[in-house]
What we know:
The chain has five helices and two strands, in the order E-H-H-H-H-H-E. The chain has helices at residues 6-16, 20-27, 31-38, 46-55, 63-66, and strands spanning 3-4, 67-68. The relative contact order is 0.25.
Amino acid sequence: xxxxxxxxxxxxxxxxxxxxxxxxxxxxxxxxxxxxxxxxxxxxxxxxxxxxxxxxxxxxxxxxxxxxx
Length: 69
């Protein structure tokens, strides 16, 4: 399971002008589930983390700054 660095992810979302609805669409989950992921009340799997990283244009070498495995 993967947890996220909430403040870094929220900052990146704001930087990219994206919303939780955008995250939900990219991950194929409900907006509520996306909210849980972003606020670390529910862990995501590695596939979901990789999709979120792609949405946010997070480079592989930056992955561990945003995600904790």
